[in-house]
Amino acid sequence: DSIFVNESVSVTSxxxxxxxxxxxxxxxxDKDDIIVNIKENILTLSANKKQQxxxxxxxxxxxxxxxxxxxxxFSLPNDIDISNPIINRNKTYIEIIFPKKQNYKK
Length: 106
Fold this sequence. Notes:
Blueprint: E1 8-16, E2 19-27, E3 35-39, E4 42-57, E5 60-75, E6 86-89, E7 93-99
Antiparallel strand pairs: 1-2, 2-7, 3-4, 4-5, 6-7
């Protein structure tokens, strides 16, 4: 057994005619550790994780500490509605969906 957890994170975005979505795939984090913040047309995805482990073998104790974090920030286009996003949380991903504004004019 490894005493370290492998963390990995990736973000993809997809634009369709009526919506814009972001998907954050992650491993090594709990879905509730991930913070989704939307403010002034900026989407921020972040997490901080601290972990301590101890293993005892024979007459030795092995202790380790690890810190993992990530921070992603995206400027959101003006033609999407940030007031009511749909946020789906799963064990391995979070998806944020923004509908396109109705009757948006450039």
